[in-house]
């Protein structure tokens, strides 16, 4: 059967269904790896807060809470632990005194970079049996997805 026949034609609905089925599996593996390597040193919400602050330096506590999916009080406790470990610097916004501005310290950036590298190595290990052609197909697909979703994520 050829791909252009109606029964084989793929639609954006088919692609969306496959995407919604696959992305959670990938994220589960990434989270499990991050959890395993940081179980004794850092919680998953702390990792997520560090990653968010890496992408959004100067973010507020409310923005971190929204991203991590917790209350402002829980985010405050999470950030407090990261401040105590010298992974996050907390200061007051000069224009808006009640607003707390958060940023990663050098130690926080280093810790996050090590965690990402470890997880990247683990993912590479999982992909090692793919052929070069399959790896190129995956990369092309991911590039397309990034082009579709990146503009939306910044709005």
Key descriptive features of the protein:
155 residues, 3 strands, 6 helices, Arc Repressor Mutant, subunit A, 8% strand
Overview of this structure, please?
Helix 2 crosses helix 3. The protein has six helices and three strands, in the order ααβααββαα. It has 155 residues and is mainly α. The chain has a single domain, classed as Winged helix-like DNA-binding domain superfamily/Winged helix DNA-binding domain (Arc Repressor Mutant, subunit A, Orthogonal Bundle). Strands 1-3-2 form a three-stranded antiparallel beta sheet.
Summarize this entry quickly.
The chain has a single domain (26-149), classed as Arc Repressor Mutant, subunit A (Orthogonal Bundle), CATH 1.10.10. The longest helix has 27 residues, at 12-38. It has 155 residues and is mainly alpha-helical.
- What is the SS-derived class? mainly alpha
Series of secondary-structure elements, N-terminal to C-terminal: HHEHHEEHH
Low-confidence stretches: none
Distance between the termini: 42 Å
- At the fold tier of CATH, the topology name is Arc Repressor Mutant, subunit A
CATH superfamily: Winged helix-like DNA-binding domain superfamily/Winged helix DNA-binding domain
| Distinct helical segment count | 6
Number of domains: 1
What is the strand tally?
3
Gyration radius over CA: 20 Å
Approximate shape: globular
Percent helix among the residues?
A: 55-70%
Residue share in β-strands? 5-15%
**CATH architecture verdict:** Orthogonal Bundle
